[in-house]
Each structure stands twice: as C-alpha cells, then as structure tokens.
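Lecture 7 notes: from sequence to structure.
We start with the chain below.
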Amino acid sequence: MAYSTDLRKRILAFIATGGKKAEAARRFSVDRSTIYRGLGADTPLLPEKPGPKHMRCLDEGSLKKHVADFPDLTQNERATHFGVSVSSIGYGLRKFGIPRKKNTRIQRAVC
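Predicted structure tokens for the same chain:
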C-alpha cells in the first residue's frame, strides 16, 4: 500500500527538523524500513511503481535465429547462452508458438 504524498511530506519534515526515524515511525504509524526506503529514494515523495524495474534483455530476433540454428537445446541451455532466466526464454518461445523442449536424456525402452 502506498502512503499519501501529504504523509510522506510530514515524515520528511519531521526528520529534517531533527526528529529520529524510530520516533517518526511510531508517531506516523509506518514501518521504519518504509522511512529508510523513502529517504534513500531519488524522489522520496513518489511511491515506487510495481512491476519490472528493467527492460527485457532478450532480443526476440536473436532468440528466433538461435532456435532455428540449434533446435535441440533445452530452455535451460538457451537461458545460459543468453544470460537470462529460464522463464524469459519460455516467455519468448511462447510468443513464437514454439513448444517447450523437454529433457532429451530420458532413456527410451526398446521392445
């Protein structure tokens, strides 16, 4: 839950006039970590936006080319190659309609 701008201003003003952070936390009924986070932020009066903090580092064109060049690799191996998480690879492959590569090391029974 984000706190109002008015409350943030009052907390910062209290600390700027010499109040202690622990006392501000008790007086304004907020957690001390919230105060420290607000003081360390670039813009302490704006709440943090939820969601991803960085742009995706996976280029879709290079992923498509990599799948065409190496069709037998698993998602773990692709993630290691690109330096991203396995879920990023799965997200990119789903966009292209490519099914998930299962573990190919399973022994097949010969009849």
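Points to note: The two ends are 61 Å apart (CA to CA). The chain has six helices and no strands.
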